[in-house]
Amino acid sequence: MAAPETPGAADARLVLAVPAPVVALLDRLHAGGHAAYVVGGSLRDALLGREPNDWDMATDARPDRIVALFPGSVYENRFGTVAVRQDEDVFEITTFRTEHDYADFRRPHRVEFGDDVVADLARRDFTVNAIAWGRAGRDDGTGAPNALVDPFDGIADLAARRLRAVGDPDARFREDALRMVRAVRLAASLAFDIEPATLAAIRANAGLVRHLSGERVGAELARLLAAPMPSVGLRLALDTGLLAVISPELAQQRGIQQNKILGEDLWDHTLRTVDAVPADRPVVRLAALLHDIGKPATLADGRFHHHDIVGAQQAETLLRTLRYPRATTDEVVHLIRHHMFVVDREATDAAVRRFIRRIGRDWIGPLFELRRADDIGSGMAPDDPDQVAFRARIDAELAARVPLDRNALAIDGGDLMRELGLQPGPRLGGVLEALVDQVIADPVLNDRATLMLLAQGMLADMLPDEGER
Ligand code: ATP
Ligand code: MG
To answer: Within 13 Å, how many C-alpha atoms sit on residue 177's CB side?
Structure first.
């Protein structure tokens, strides 16, 4: 379905394959008299031979004109982006823009529609993101085939695997400080270097990141953590001073010694741990990044007392600031809180079941994934036999479907109310929890008659709730 096109003499290694539906959309815009191009990250990825996330197109057609050319399309936002359906897929077509009035080191306050592809490319962040492929409308009389437009030598930087700011890097980072975070993120996701002048400008302007919304920074962090080796970007973030603004606690890990890998510090350990988590486990990767965030603050006499508890709190604050979804934050905080769990060879079966209950059955897998990465990050061989054995015992308990919570009891609150005259309230809840404890200790107790007897015995020792006889 791809229509391969070669970009010309600039670099013979780069071969461009644009899918037929995308070419069809460009053709319709061209036939309508408009300039239209594939642009941005999608073109960059295609030239690198990577599968683009999405195909972005830019045109001189104004949004209402795009909507008129493509019946059923939807004008999405004030930035001029129209979503167009083609061959079962939805593509975004954006009117050329020029940007003005940058203030507060954030994104522009005013965008203007433009007529010129080069002006649209000039507002983009890095040369490799500022290439276009397409042509002007038929009105210009050229009738030329689609071709690359590369006013900032992005192709050469692509071939050299190098990120270079479009224009003066200092000025561009002061316009929008997020571009610095994007630079370290893209360095990791593409495995590119940052060229020296661009890198120097990041060092010089890193402090401006404090003006950004947590949401924008958080989105780039999430993309960074999806890179094959997040450590590439994280290391750059620390070395340039970006990390000290985003998370001072993490940046303080640099230089803190711990007896793990000879000559490496706590920050090195964090980076190794993050890289050791598979890329398709984003929540565990985030937990890996933050698992020892509490260590700098708790360091005393060469120990990190309660760093799991302190770290869980610090991670929660950071992830709220970065506007991570509530569910992700809760998961990460829970994993950090429990990441120091002890693997006990002597544990009784009841202790194994209490462990499952404390962690929650859904978190056993992620917690062991985190521990495995933590071990690798500590220079230890993964899959320590005691750990593997402990995990096997947990899995065996889960496979045996042992009762672990109220829902698994052979009686419920309704039974206790009917047969023992209990009212809904704290006493009822207390009895049910106590029964769960007993059944976890000894699953054999989980039958109606036994539980009823146990409950009666407990009630004899309890004061009634207010309103109960
Ligand atoms: P990815 O492939 O991970 O999506 P991307 O480069 O496509 O990376 P997007 O956020 O999708 O990143 O942005 C699309 C394009 O918009 C970029 O390639 C770049 O040309 C431009 N762009 C995005 N953010 C900025 C910015 N802050 N300043 C200037 N140009 C930007
Ligand atoms: Mg993109």
So the answer is: 22
Neighbouring residues of the ion ligand 2, judged by CB less than 5 Å: 41
How confident is the chain (469 residues) per 10-residue block, as mean pLDDT?
45 71 94 95 94 92 94 81 90 88 65 90 97 83 80 97 98 96 98 98 98 97 98 98 98 90 92 97 98 95 92 98 97 97 90 93 96 95 92 93 88 91 88 92 92 90 67
Nearest atom, ligand 1, residue 56 CA:
14
Query: What predicted TM-score, i.e. pTM, was given to this entire model?
Result: 0.89
81 lines ligand 1 (CB under 6 A): no
Q: Are 22 and 39 in contact (CB under 8 A)?
A: no
Mutation test residue for ligand 1: of 43, 50, 79, 129, the one with most atoms within 8 Å of CB = 129
Task: Answer yes or no: is the C-beta of 223 below 6 A from any ligand 1 atom.
Answer: yes
Q: Is 129 in the pocket of ligand 1 (CB under 6 A)?
A: yes
